[in-house]
Amino acid sequence: MKATKGKVDTRKGKKEELRPVEDRTLGKRKAAIKADNSRRKLTKKAKLGKKDANKPKRPPSAFFVFLEEFRTIYKQEHPNVKAVSAVGKAGGEKWKSLTNAEKAPYEAKAAKRKSEYEKLMTAYNKKQDNTDDEEEESEKSKSNVNDDDEEDTGEEDDGGEDEDDD
Fold first, then answer.
1. Are 107 and 62 in contact, with CB atoms under 8 Å apart?
2. pLDDT tens digit string along 73-94?
3. pTM
4. Backbone angles phi, psi at 114, to 5 degrees
5. Which domains does the chain have, with CATH numbers?
6. Where in the sequence does UniProt note compositional bias of the Acidic residues kind (predicted)?
């Protein structure tokens, strides 16, 4: 009789040791879903990694034009404050308190920078189109040259059968 009670007790002990959901191993389906998500992250990173160093930087908005000037003033008034976040918060509060008339010069500067940026971008895009066309032409010319070389040497395709086959 005692032997059967001992077996029952061990089973109860196992039930009491149930692990929380977070500690359990993943099932097949959940593991597959996680694998798919990791692949997506890799492809997004690969797309983001293709930055051109020659591409013009986007122009700052009116707020950031204001913040450039505000930073120098704020640092003169508060030389002990080194935190960037403190300068940003103070700048944001100041920007909110400005009237539209006070914001106008910053918006004008931002518009001017935006027009310059658009000119640079059109020139950049034209340059990119030209380089893409040249690359396509060079690839075509390389393939034509390689085809001509094969014809000149008298090489013929015999269907992939070599004399050395055993």
1. yes
2. 999 999 998 899 999 999 999 9
3. 0.52
4. -65, -40
5. 62-146 (1.10.30.10)
6. 146-166
